[in-house]
Amino acid sequence: MNTFAANAAHIFLIGIGATAVMDTWLLLLQRLGVPTLNFAMIGRWAGHWGGGTWKHEAIAKAPPVRGELALGWVVHYASGIAFAGLLAGITGLDWVHKPTLVPALCVGIATVAVPWLVMQPAMGAGIASSRTPAPARNRLRSLANHTVFGLGLYLAAAFIAWILR
């Protein structure tokens, strides 16, 4: 396998692993009775892009789209892979092979900007959940989830680097 393909595969696996760590965290929260994100709503949002609709007053009230749950999961994992690529782009490929915690946490925490500034406003929740009944709690949850994702970036990269040694 050439170097480009090997690095791309490495980044792909880091993104998948980090997203799986975040999903494990979300599953734990669900088991503890904490409401978590409904990935069908992400799929519904993405499913309306083809028709030119990017913003909704309330995504839950938008017409459902076929396969929205599966589409939501695909968007979720594709985002994780893209964020892993962003981390590699910022730190350089050396980080991919010799990961350290701080850059991964910083990028993970920074990725909270996407839901706060893009997804939540586009789905009708306002900037950083400002139109929800409990904005501060929702902001804190998003920040915690993306911090766990950052930890997942490090853990996935460290695990893959360990396997490849």
Automatic annotation (TrEMBL):
What InterPro entries does its record include?
A: DUF2938 (IPR021329)
Q: Pfam families, from UniProt?
A: DUF2938
Does Membrane count among this protein's keywords? Answer: yes
Keywords, ordered alphabetically = Membrane, Transmembrane, Transmembrane helix
Does the record carry Coiled coil as a key word?
Answer: no
Transmembrane region(s): 6-29, 69-90, 102-122, 143-164
Q: What is this protein called?
A: Membrane protein
Q: Which organism is it from?
A: Polaromonas eurypsychrophila
